[in-house]
User: Fold Probable membrane transporter protein from Roseovarius aestuarii.
Amino acid sequence: MPDILTQVWATPGLVWLMLTIGLAGLVRGFTGFGTAMIFVPIAGIFLPPATVVAVMVLTGIASNAALIPRAWRQAARAEVGLLAFAAMLTVPLGLWLLVLLDQLTVRWFVAVIVGSTFLLLVTGWRFSGQINRVGLLLIGAAAGVVGGMTGLTGPIIVLFYLAGQSAAQRIRANTILFLAALDVVIAANLLLRGSLGLAEVALAITLAVPYFITTMIGQALFDPRHERLFRAGAYTVIGLAVVSGLPLWA
Assistant:
């Protein structure tokens, strides 16, 4: 155990990782998403992609206890269930791609996904139609692939909901439930593959402490009456992630 703790404290950029996960928790508590879009680009500077994915899902699971009770009451659970079912089927494909592709390629993929999400949202793109069950399954499947390959479990779902007409409270609740389910699915797949070691678990526990605290603070700050503030905060998170995540910096 002392050796594992020594290894955790020797993690490159640990202070930056803790500060980043703390900010991510604040945003996650307020908006219902944002952890991966903040943490993954920064973590990718210091950690291998496989470690980033493992730490991301484990810290996500740790924070869900603070968010799920309220989200469960407010979410469209049947809709989220379809999304999660489809994602469960495609996560293994994403994890296979994670192993297949080199680290720089994965980082560029992260930058493209987050950047595209940001551009579509800030340009005012909106989807006014109705998504049927097949559409929900396709959206969930895409989120599963991207989440397994990069740890970015949120962008596909965030784009789907923020580009729609749902109220902030419903967007937040649905997103929280879906991301919680996807974290569990990815973690289970990593366990089956033998890709979760003590080092990853210890690092995730270390980062989970500031993450849980700031998630609670963020949840306390959320007020469904402030719709504009909610969307502005969401867009700001994505924009910062685009800039910080470009592989040009490191």
